[in-house]
């Protein structure tokens, strides 16, 4: 029997374990061209909260009663496809099941000798691609500019900051604990950090950390932190809106400082970023990220939760900022 | 003696006549290379409200005790510059004086035989350039798309809508009276209009006027109207933030619906637009606008106030939406 996690009900506000349901199913028959794979690592990410809402978005909402799905690395345990052998590993967007029969469309082979398997969900996977492409495609960084990153100790944020340093930017990270901000400096090389939970006046703290103003803002959180950044942007600032985790659980429409006057005054830009819009650039960028990783110009932190049954709790913990870096479940 | 209007005090909230002061000064001596010019038309525009605040912006604030300045068309009445003859007309950013001695830097000659003098402040001047360049450079319009224009009966808005129609867009105009919305349809060819003052549910009204969603939003107003547009944007929508007249008089920091979740969901873009950033394109675009005007593909409305002494009141009336199209003072 195969363990599966179903999406039981749509959360109102903060998701809870009650929104998930464990079930079991029979193994399916393997047809020509297909693979039978066994889950190795499952990725839990903020964007999944969006798919739990019924609202129209860039990807369809999860269906109640069906399995959830996210990024997964899985081992091929049986193959009826010439391109894939038993014992090889693949990554792709797959349902939360311990084992399943899959078509090979949308799957990439991954090599456990080049990098640890979980890195294919993180720094050289969607996380790294998001960081690199968001920063380059919208941020258009120029050496010497100042970059502010919110959610800086998260999976994407910690990579954004490191790429910023590789490109010669002044990098300021905002995170939610002294332990996290210490790590941003010691491990990821951020120039300055702000613990938003212990800072009374964020607007002033950003001004102090960015004496030349903010040219690029990589926004993972939205809400009051992003409002405070607005007061410090420079002319022609670029704001990459990659996520708004601070408001994902809101039951009312979130409000905040009106951005329009800041945009007009500064000829500034805000643009929503979704990595899948840039799929054509994935191979080239993944190669660059892998090179930097090998050259030790990039490093990463991950929070690994053991056990398939802990996947829902891992998701909830990630939403509450209990992760450092990429949160993955080792099945 | 020359009449001058000084900036007497910074308005708090809505400006009043008390913020302006009339004075007189002696005529100055004309030096080599200079012109003596007599004001013909003075432009009053929303952006002047921004310069009345002390806050840092893309142009320095007006200085209290000094003359205000804005776009002006003036007649050369004496010349010590070979390039300009008595009786010719020039346009440029000039202090609010009935007569003055000026250097020729930043002045353009204008031809009263090609178009009425006031048009050089409007449809073939800064107004038309703003409409054309904002729509093209940020809006990147594609035939068949849907364009929403706020402040549609204003100087810039009415030109934006007409250019939208020339480019084959569906054009929806938002304005503040039935007289204005009627004019948008009959005179400027808008496809649909909304009177925001008599519409209870703006979000729904926009949805009905834009059955295929909103691809481009040319925003002159900010505030609740712009919030309502957000709920109707399409994937990859472009929002040109050209002005935020609805909040210019606010004494507190304006708030509204948080835009970030809408931008992420729709991979949408918001960008502040200031026409002076695109100065290199002015000659080419002005030529295009003049051609369209001659071909009667473009038309315009202006509200002409007579008398230099009425300039402050004309500005206040324009801020309150009492103008239709471009507001100018005939000196």
Rounded to the nearest angstrom, the distance between the terminal CA atoms of chain A is: 15 Å
Tell the overall outline of chain A: globular
What are the low-pLDDT stretches of chain A, counting only 5+ consecutive residues below 50? none
Number of structurally distinct domains of chain A: 2
Largest sheet of chain A: 7 strands, mixed
DSSP summary: helix tally of chain A: 9
Please state the CA-atom Rg of chain A, rounded to the nearest Å: 20 Å
Structural class of chain A: alpha/beta
The oligomeric status of these chains comes to homodimer
Record field, number of beta strands of chain A: 16
CATH homology superfamily name of the largest domain in chain A: Medium-chain alcohol dehydrogenases, catalytic domain
Question: What features would you describe in this structure?
Answer:
The structure is a homodimer of 331-residue chains. By secondary structure, chain A is an alpha/beta fold. The first copy, chain A, folds into two domains: 2-122 and 300-330, Quinone Oxidoreductase, Chain A, domain 1, CATH 3.90.180.10; 126-276, Rossmann fold. Chain A is 25% helix and 28% strand. Chain A contains nine helices and 16 strands. Chain A has helices at 47-51, 126-138, 155-166, 178-186, 202-209, 223-230, 260-266, 282-294, 311-319; strands spanning 2-7, 20-25, 35-43, 69-79, 89-95, 99-102, 108-110, 146-150, 170-175, 192-195, 214-219, 233-241, 255-257, 269-272, 302-306, 326-330. In chain A, strands 3, 4, 5, 6, 7, 15 and 16 form a seven-stranded mixed sheet that branches. In chain A, strand 11, helix 6 (223-230) and strand 12 form a beta-alpha-beta unit. In chain A, helix 2 packs across helix 3 and helix 2 (126-138) crosses helix 8 (282-294). The longest helix of chain A has 13 residues, at 126-138. The mean pLDDT of chain A is 94. Chains A, B: This is NADP-dependent oxidoreductase. Chains A, B: GO terms for molecular function: oxidoreductase activity, acting on the CH-CH group of donors, NAD or NADP as acceptor. Chains A, B: Keywords: Oxidoreductase.
């Amino acid at each position: 029997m195969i363990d599966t996690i179903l999406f039981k009900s749509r959360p109102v506000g903060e998701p809870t374990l009650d929104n998930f349901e464990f079930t079991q199913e029979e193994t399916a028959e393997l047809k020509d061209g297909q693979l039978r794979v066994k889950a190795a690592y499952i990725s839990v990410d903020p964007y999944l909260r969006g798919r739990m809402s019924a609202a129209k978005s860039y990807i369809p909402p999860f269906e109640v009663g069906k399995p959830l799905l996210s990024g997964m690395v899985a081992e091929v345990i049986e193959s009826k496809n010439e391109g894939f052998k038993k014992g090889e590993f693949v990554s792709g967007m797959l349902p939360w099941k311990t084992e399943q029969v899959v078509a090979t469309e949308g799957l990439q082979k991954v090599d456990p000798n080049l990098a640890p398997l979980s890195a294919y969900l993180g720094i050289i996977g969607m996380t790294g691609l998001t960081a690199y492409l968001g920063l380059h495609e919208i941020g258009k960084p120029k050496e010497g500019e100042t970059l502010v990153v919110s959610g800086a100790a998260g999976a994407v944020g910690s990579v954004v900051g490191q790429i910023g340093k590789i490109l010669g930017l002044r990098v300021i990270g905002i995170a939610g604990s002294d332990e996290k901000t210490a790590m941003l400096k010691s491990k990821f090389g951020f120039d300055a950090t702000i613990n938003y939970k212990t800072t009374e006046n964020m607007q002033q703290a950003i001004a102090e950390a960015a004496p030349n103003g903010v040219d690029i803002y990589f926004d993972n959180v939205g809400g009051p932190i992003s409002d405070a950044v607005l007061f410090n942007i420079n002319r022609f600032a670029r704001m990459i809106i990659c996520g708004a985790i601070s408001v994902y659980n809101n039951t009312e429409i979130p409000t905040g400082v009106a951005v329009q006057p800041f945009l007009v005054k500064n000829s500034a830009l805000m643009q929503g970023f979704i990595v899948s819009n840039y799929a054509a650039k994935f191979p080239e960028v993944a190669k660059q990220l892998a090179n930097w990783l090998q050259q030790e110009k990039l490093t990463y932190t991950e929070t690994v939760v053991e056990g398939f049954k802990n996947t829902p709790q891992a998701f909830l913990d990630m939403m509450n900022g209990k992760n450092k870096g990429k949160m993955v479940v080792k099945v």
